[in-house]
Amino acid sequence: MTRQDLVRLGASKQSATRRPAWPKGRLGVLIGAAVLALTLSSCSAGGGLEAAQAGSAGTQEFVSGDLRVHEIPPAERREPVRFAGVTERGDAVSSDDFVDQVLVVNFWYAACGPCIVEAPLLEEVWQTHQGNDVAFLGVNIYDQPSTAESFAADNGVSYPSVIDIVDKSVSQAFAAVTPIQATPTTLVLDRQGRVAARIIGELQSASILSALVADALQETT
Question: How would you classify residue 104: left for phi > 0, otherwise alpha for psi between -120 and 50, otherwise beta?
């Protein structure tokens, strides 16, 4: 290989490093905007950002520090998630309550710093979409009901959460069909109860989740 070839190869690698590929479409635009904002806030702390696009049957994935956004095409979704539990208010809840609705499920606990930060963003998306065949449900993996209620009051969260600290049956039901790798994790289920999208890590923008919910609403069953 000549010196000129080496120079061209090095320039190509630098260019690829500087220009990560966003997922295409509306969600890609929203994610790109979120990354630009995160870059400004991360530089002083030395945080790195990486965006990646998976190439399997249209699957799109975005990675930014501790945040991972993964969309699952309908043909690749696994079976509907079946679950049942009791909320912090003592109300029974199950997957049967959300038939023909898009359901957003957020795994959290009160002492989780990212859970506190993202709580208003989740509530914002809930307020935007409620009444449009959309439901929100938290899954608290650690706290007693009183702690979960206090968290909801302190952070303005109006949707309920399952208290899943005894047998972890709700968490296990979801883990059987999709990775639950970190807390917080937010899932978007389609009208059939299948996981259509997964956000692992702290939600950085209400627009990202809102776009995922809107996409699931537009799908035909």
Answer: beta
Q: How many Å apart are CA 17 and CA 21, to the nearest integer?
A: 10
CA distance 31 to 137: 24
79 and 58 fall within a common domain: no
Q: Are residues 205 and 134 in the same domain?
A: yes
Rounded to an integer, what distance in angstroms lies between the CA atom of residue 145 and that of residue 154?
14
Question: Alpha helix locations (H) across the chain?
Answer: 3-18, 25-42, 113-129, 145-155, 169-175, 206-218
Whether 98 maps to a domain, the answer reads yes
**123 Rama class: left (phi>0) / alpha (psi -120 to 50) / beta:** alpha
pLDDT in tens, 67-103: 789 999 999 999 999 999 999 999 999 999 999 999 9
CATH code, domain with 173:
3.40.30.10
For residue 32 the two structure tokens come to 């790109």
User: Any idea what the Cα angle at residue 105 is, between residues 144 and 108, rounded to 5°?
Assistant: 40
Two tokens, residue 128: 């935007």
Q: Is the peptide bond before 184 cis (omega within 30 degrees of 0)?
A: yes
Spatial distance between the Cα atoms of 139 and 186, rounded to a whole number of angstroms: 10
Report residues of the chain scoring pLDDT below 70: 1-66, 221
Q: Compute the distance between CA of residue 48 and CA of residue 2 in angstroms, rounded to an integer.
A: 33
